[in-house]
Specification:
heterodimer; A: 331 residues; alpha/beta; eight-stranded mixed β-sheet; four-stranded antiparallel β-sheet; 12 strands; 32% helix; B: 310 residues; three-stranded antiparallel β-sheet; 31% helix; globular
């Protein structure tokens, strides 16, 4: 199931390099990241802590503190708008309207001092000139779409009165308040239990399908991307190391890191036997790394892997990986 | 086979609401009659979602919390039972050097002198795969996985018989989780430790544990051999839980959506606790369900038996 929609991408990141200035240098958080999200598709970004997936999400909406980072190369277009050149007014018009964001922890995403209804009405009226009564009706409708049974009663509640799963459903309802064309969800279910995770992700997926919105789903959980995304980007230490249709990348990974990540899970080996951990740790992103960023932990690394950037290889039109080995780790 | 620790019908209720005179008006029922035993050299997994009482159970086992009713028998005392907590960022004192953190459980019982403690700390660090010359460093100088190794070294220092592992890898990345689980398995083989492994992660429990107890609302609903319970679950809740785990390479999510929510533990449901969420609820489920013993040592708190029905 490939979705090479001939439309313009709703999100287009081209060769983006981003760094955070630190004492006597810079932390290279993103290096030459290229990503596209087309209308209506669900795209996953997977990787471990420190791989740059949240920085990518924050940069997409230009939510990083303005004086804390530098873009050193590349461009970022969200709904055709150059986000790096956008004015504050242009950013306000996009955020919460054409593009919406869902964060990990729903309790911190919702204002604790305001009732759910007041919050929703405010968000709706920030982008539409409608009366409070109409906004109220729209909010109730949004909550019903998220299968919240007693929507008018929930509108009168405060966030602390609701369960984690219910709060995240409200956050998703809010994200869809102004008919977004893309929703960026940064670890939306990491704080939730698995049974609730399934409810929330299924509702998110169905809602996106119904309104034709694209979703950029950022997670560390390979099971989640496997069940809920069409395409994925695998990131490691600030770089995209492999991308392609989800089922292909997860069943026939080409990059050594993707394979190592899949093999490290307890599902990969017999019970009680030793797990295939990835030795070593992330490289220090303050250093200049001339070669492949995974080379230090890669069992197959050669000398040139450490000295020169690996080429991007494309075994099929939609799968791309960055490795010196021509076929990658394909069996 | 000998028993390391045994719990008999443990119940814990926390005061949850008070009236204007400070009298307790309601309780949160965290544990509602838990009976289980941990064997020496074996790993018992406790599987459940938030609020099922698994961390309260850990506190009762370590003696940090006295049960409201019920008895604990077997290994007691802080030097014989250790605990490794979920988040090594908050469980290690940031103002203490590693050697002091690691030897604190020993220091609290006897004071062998600074040099002896430093030597012990260096030994322990080697055991958990860290460098002995790092004993003077502070927690912030280590990565998350390394910090969890320090927490494990601390748990080992008093030569305990049981280590309670309360979600020891849920704050870690999978590649680091694999390192920590491997280390824990090595230490168990070497020292014959008994582990109580508390987790919400089904695949980690299936991999790591000999036996598993599935908890729901402060009760064990199903218990038995980990591999068997987690491949052929017989309680409807175990089924719901396993069905919700996203799996790699099984295609897109499908199947009916469960829309039920966990009931509050302030007022416990009558009869079977899972009844209101159970698709298979039938007459008789409004009776209190005992934990009954099935073939192969499996215990099940359900009047029906799913393997026989579906």
């Amino acid at each position: 199931m490939t979705l090479s929609v001939p439309n313009d991408p709703v999100l287009s990141i081209q060769g983006l390099s981003l760094e955070f200035p630190v004492w006597r240098g810079a932390l290279h958080a993103l290096e030459d990241v290229t990503m596209q999200v087309y209308p209506g598709e669900i795209v996953g970004v997977v990787g471990e802590s420190g791989c740059g997936k949240s920085v990518t999400a924050m940069a997409t909406m230009r939510l990083l503190p303005e004086d804390a980072y530098r873009i050193t190369a590349g461009s970022l277009h969200l709904l055709g708008q150059d986000m790096m050149a956008a004015t504050q007014a242009q950013l306000r018009a996009i955020r919460g309207s054409g593009a919406a964001m869902i964060f990990q922890e729903p309790l911190t995403a919702l204002n604790p001092t305001r009732r759910i209804g007041d919050l929703m009405i405010e968000v709706i009226r920030a982008h539409r000139k409608i009366t409070k009564a109409d906004a109220h009706a729209h909010a109730v409708d949004l909550l019903r779409q998220m299968r919240i049974a007693d929507a008018p009663a929930i509108m009168r509640r405060y966030p602390f009165e609701l369960s984690g799963g219910m709060r995240q459903r409200i956050v998703i309802a809010l994200a869809f308040a102004n008919d977004p064309r893309i929703v960026i969800a940064d670890e939306p279910t990491t704080a939730l239990d698995v049974t609730v995770q399934r409810q929330v992700l299924t509702l998110l997926q169905n809602r996106a399908r119904d309104v034709g919105a694209a979703v950029l789903l950022i997670t560390h959980d390979l099971g989640v991307v496997s069940e809920y995304t069409d395409r994925i980007y695998v990131m490691y230490a600030g770089k995209v190391v492999e991308t392609g249709p989800t089922d292909r990348v997860l069943t026939a990974p080409r990059h050594p890191y993707t394979r190592a990540l899949l093999n490290a899970g307890p599902e990969a080996v017999a019970a009680k036997s030793a797990l295939a951990s990835i030795p070593g740790t992330l490289p220090d992103l303050r250093q200049d790394i001339p070669g492949c960023r995974f080379a230090g932990r890669c069992a197959l690394a050669q000398d040139h892997c450490r000295t020169a950037l690996p080429p991007m290889r494309s075994p099929s039109p939609d799968q791309v990986f960055a490795c010196w080995m021509e076929q990658g780790v394909a069996a | 086979m000998s028993i390391a620790i045994e719990l008999h019908d443990i119940a814990v209720a926390f005061p949850a609401g008070r009236d204007w005179r400070g009298r307790i008006t309601s309780y949160a029922h965290a544990l509602n009659g838990v009976t289980l035993r941990v064997e020496r050299g074996k790993t018992l997994g406790i599987l459940g979602e938030s609020g099922c009482g698994k961390s309260t159970l850990a506190q009762v086992m370590t003696g940090l919390l006295g049960p409201t009713s019920g008895r604990v028998e077997g290994v007691r005392g802080a030097d014989r039972i250790s605990i490794v907590l979920q988040d090594p960022n908050s469980s290690l004192n940031p103002r203490m050097p590693v050697w002091k953190i690691v030897t604190e459980p020993v220091f609290l019982h006897r004071t062998p002198g600074r040099q002896a403690l430093r030597a012990l700390a260096a030994d322990l660090l080697v055991k958990v795969g860290l460098r002995p010359e790092h004993i003077d460093r502070y927690p912030h100088e280590f990565s998350g996985g390394q910090r969890q190794r320090i927490a494990i070294a601390r748990a080992l220092s008093s030569q305990p018989e049981i280590i309670i592992l309360d979600e020891p890898t849920s704050a870690l990345d999978v590649s680091v989780q694999a390192q920590i689980l491997n280390l824990l398995m090595e230490l168990q083989n070497e020292r014959g430790l008994a582990y109580v492994f508390i987790s919400h992660n089904v695949s980690v429990i299936r991999h790591f544990c000999d036996e598993v107890a599935v908890m729901y609302l402060g009760q064990i609903v199903e218990q038995g051999d980990a591999a068997r319970v987690l491949t052929t679950p017989r309680h409807p809740y175990t089924r719901l839980l396993l069905g919700a785990v996203p799996r790699i390479g099984h295609g897109r999510a499908s199947g009916p959506l469960d829309e039920t929510e966990l009931p509050s533990n302030r007022t416990l449901p009558s009869g079977c606790f899972f009844r209101n969420r159970c698709a298979l609820a039938a007459p008789g489920c409004d009776e209190i369900q005992p934990l009954r013993l099935l073939d192969g040592g499996r215990q099940l708190r359900c009047q029906r038996d799913l393997t026989l029905e579906t």
